[in-house]
Amino acid sequence: MHHFHAFSVVMTRLLKGLLVSLTLVQKLCRTKPIDTTSGLGEGLSSSGLSRSIGLFSLTMIGVGATIGTGIFFTMVEAVPKAGPSVILSFLIAAVTAGLTALCYAELSFRIPASGSSYSFAYATVGEFLAFIMAACLLLEYGLAGSAVAIGWSSYLNNFLENAFGWHIPEMLRTPMIVSGPHGMEFHAGHINLPPIFLICMCCFMLLRGAKESALMNAIMVLIKLAILVFFIVVAFSGFNADNFFPFFNTDNSKGFAGMTGVTAAAGTVFFSFIGLDTVATAGDEVKNPTRNVPRGILGALLIVTVFYLLVAVAALGAQQAKLFEGQEAGLAVILQNVTGHAWPALVLSAGAVISVFSVTLVTIYGQTRILFAISRDGLIPKSFQKIHPRTLVPVSNTLIVCLVVALVAGSIDATYLWDMVSIGTLTAFMVVSIAVPVLRHKQGASRIEGFSVPFGPYVIPGLSVCACLYIMRDLPHTTFVVFSVWMAVTIAIYFLYSIRHSHLGKKGV
């Protein structure tokens, strides 16, 4: 009898533990219902944001978040790794982004809501992975905004030197934490003021409203495209085919010889395709999102890829690969060297100063809309979803994001930021790809007709995941360490706050 009682106690405890485990798994895997009326303007839930963005403005948001970022700045980081074969790096990144773009297009058609990959994950693979996805997106957008603002500073300084013969004092345009020849260095008293000023201007525009910001962005993107066409035409006048030999990097002192350098550079430039995700973050503010969001994503990808390849070929044809390393305002310097005159560099720097504003603007916009979506689901405090009654803008959300982005941009060297943005983007792209077959299975025969990934739900998403992993493998070790710390903090926040405040949890889901 005693043995039977002991056995029953043990079994009872095991059953209780199993029930607790099952309950926890259910909480982690709970998904947000997909609202079939979202195409009529309600999204996943009624958000209160205004649907004011059309297809052209939406496509320009995607182009604005990409063109400029990878061309104006990352050539300096990527060419020293790959040499002239950086063209292959852009192609690898473009093909990977293209595979993922098809997945984004299908998901954005079926889940047209603010929050992009986060919303897609919440409706398919569950709350916990959606929160992890949100953390990747916040890392991606926040650091992208900071990194681009830092790069903008060098073009501003180049413009001031060519136009007025004056430059910003070094203490006011260099950060406190920099990457030196022997590792991290601290320069007390230094601050990078121009990026902080740029972010303040972006904050002012975003507080005015989404429609006004989208219009201003479209104008700046058209200026940017015109400037890049100008660069391509002038740079090709100094084209030298000898600059492409040897095609692959032969210097293995840093471990970047051959294809290793190509994939490493692909990881560096990959964050330049962040614009695809930015298009999807606007789902709650787009007119007819089920039609316009997929078209906006694919249209932005096509424009971006064509311009990236043309500018990369022109730049490498006009300047030897070894000269890119450490070069400030690289494209402007190339024009000055090709023509022997300062005015082409002045035109390009002026165009970069104006147009790169749009990159920073849309990356900050994307981050605020992701935080809005997370807050709306109860996973972070309510202050991030409070909307101004007149402008319909999440004011405190926007102010907090701009403050953090400005602090990072003003104090940290951009060298530490590029690869962190890439790993966040790659992780987001993989989850989006996985979400496609999950959503197809979940909806089954009830799936509404519209854009679908070709060749079934597994081929393209599977290739997309494999391509992302291929690029990710050659990112620096430090990037993985920092990313792991970020993930640990994210998981702690989820279990300490989010799981208890989730709206789905309060509804008993």
UniProtKB/TrEMBL annotation:
- What's the domain of life for this entry? Bacteria
* GO function term, MF aspect, one: amino acid transmembrane transporter activity
Question: One GO term of the cellular component aspect?
Answer: membrane
Specify the protein's topology with respect to the membrane: Multi-pass membrane protein
What are the TM regions of this chain, as residue ranges?
53-74, 86-107, 128-152, 186-207, 214-236, 256-276, 297-321, 341-366, 392-410, 416-439, 451-472, 478-497
Locations listed in the record: Membrane
Q: Which Pfam families match?
A: AA_permease_2 (PF13520)
Q: Keywords of this protein's UniProt record, alphabetized?
A: Membrane, Transmembrane, Transmembrane helix
Signal sequence coordinates: none
Question: By what name is this protein known?
Answer: Amino acid transporter
